[in-house]
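Q&A log
Question type: sequence-to-structure
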Amino acid sequence: MSHIDKMTFKEFIEKNNLNNNVLSNQNSLNNSMKESISNKISEEDLIKILENENCPEWVINHSIAVYKKAVELSRTYISKSKFQNNNLRNKLNNNESNNSNNNSNNSDTLGMNFNEDIKSIDMDLIRIGAILHDIGRSKSNNIDHGIIGGKIAIKYGFDDKIVKIIERHIGSGIYKEEAKSLNLPEKDYIPISLEEKIVSLADNLHNGSDEVDIQFTINKWKKRVKNPKSAINNLKKQYNEIVL
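Response status: OK
Response body:
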């Protein structure tokens, strides 16, 4: 890791209070993940795992860049959700004051949305999943590196939630029918959880270690992917959900 500025990375971690898990909902974790989180596996330890698997330096640099972007996207999503909830609160208050005759109906309709909890983001999953998402590239740079990476994560005892982040980050996700044609194990590899979507999107907003915009990725897929329509649509949906 001769070209990785460890101090800069460490300062980034401390600056963002990531070890405090400020956005995490611990109650949503299963017992095995709680146990692994309680071990406080550090970013440096995760990088050592990449090195232990002989990941190329460019993969390590890319993984750190993706992690930083995933943290940024997580904060963007939380801020956006709070803003939307505040708008609903104001709209509800305005309707209650201006339409007293229809107060009950308006409150029920708006309150149904307002009372939905803002989805929490587990920053431990983001940290581990983002740094390890390309660990399979230690064995393959083909589309199967996500599957290989999932198996490596299992070897190290990581939770199924981490395995799914690694398996499902390829492109913007792969449907079961596509997986079969690509000679992958026949199942869906579509990001479902918020953490899966964030890591996948952060990965797709990078070209190597360089951050790019969504249009760059769309143009790249149009040139390189045989039938990119499905992947592009999924990418736009993830971007809209998390960023816009």
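Response note: The beta strands are 206-207, 210-211.
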